[in-house]
């Protein structure tokens, strides 16, 4: 998911050219929400990424960091594990 404090109409206009290529959700949030999230996760630059498993952040930082790819792999594995049928 991508998040922006830009108005939804501006995002719609910006993403209209690539909307069919997006593989994630883009949301517009209020300035207050943007500030709260930035403070909570210590966002100090763009781009910024956060990866969660079961609502817990396992990575926060710049997506070029090698730990980001590792966190994505771990989160994807957790999703696959959750989809797998239970074995007895």
Note down, in words, how this protein is organized.
With 88 residues, this protein is α+β, with helices and mostly antiparallel strands. The protein folds into two domains: 1-40, no CATH class; 44-88, no CATH class. The protein is 41% helix and 19% strand. It has helices spanning 8-15, 31-40, 66-83; strands at 2-4, 26-28, 49-53, 56-61. The chain is globular. It starts with a strand and ends in a 5-residue tail after the last helix. The mean pLDDT is 83.
Key traits:
88 residues; 3 helices
At a glance:
The chain has 88 residues and is of the alpha+beta class.
Count of alpha and pi helical runs: 3
Globular, elongated, flat, extended or rod-shaped: what is the shape? globular
Domains (count) = 2
Q: Whole-number radius of gyration?
A: 16 Å
The average pLDDT score comes to 83
- The helix/strand series, from N terminus to C terminus, equals EHEHEEH
* Category from helices, strands and their pairing: alpha+beta
Give the N-terminus to C-terminus distance in angstroms.
35 Å
How many strand elements? Answer: 4
- Helical residue percent band: 40-55%
Assembly form of the protein: single chain
The percent range for strand residues is 15-25%
Strand order of the biggest β-sheet:
1-2
> What summary fits the major beta sheet?
2 strands, parallel
Uncertain segments are: none
């Amino acid at each position: 998911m991508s998040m922006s404090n830009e108005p939804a109409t501006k995002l719609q206009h910006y993403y209209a050219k690539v909307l069919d290529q997006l593989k994630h959700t883009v949301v517009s949030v209020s300035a207050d929400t943007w500030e709260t999230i930035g403070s909570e996760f210590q966002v100090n630059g763009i781009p910024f990424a956060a990866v969660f498993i079961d609502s817990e952040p396992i990575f926060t930082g710049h997506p070029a960091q090698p730990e980001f790819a590792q966190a994505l792999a771990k989160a994807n594995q957790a999703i696959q594990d959750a989809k797998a049928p239970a074995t007895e």
